[in-house]
Model the fold of this input.
Amino acid sequence: MKPGYIFVAVFLYMVLSAVPSFADVPDSQKPEVEHLLTFVRNTDCKFERNGTMYDGGRAYSHINKKYGYFRDEITSTETFIEYSATKSTMSGKFYFVHCADSEPVKSGDWLLRELINFRGQSKSNR
Done:
């Protein structure tokens, strides 16, 4: 390969890899993600992650960090839950939510239920 072609190939690689990705939840669903993050942060329930219990504030921080990390693959509120709040990327173990007077539930199910509630409230406010 001629040196000029190598330069062009390297230049194109650098330019294209610097272009930001625009994947994320649609603007219409961003209030849903914000609601779920606030819901987690303010809950009195405990989050179990890899056998350790965390309060809502710590769970919020962890989920928000994963949201930032996986933003390029997240295209809806449901995929936000799937990638950010369902299971450990490292161990593959599901996260659980422990609320008073109820059995632990998978965090993904807990958040999907809250998403359905939020969408119902949003429709009734229109």
User: Anything to note?
Assistant: DSSP finds five helices and four strands in the chain.
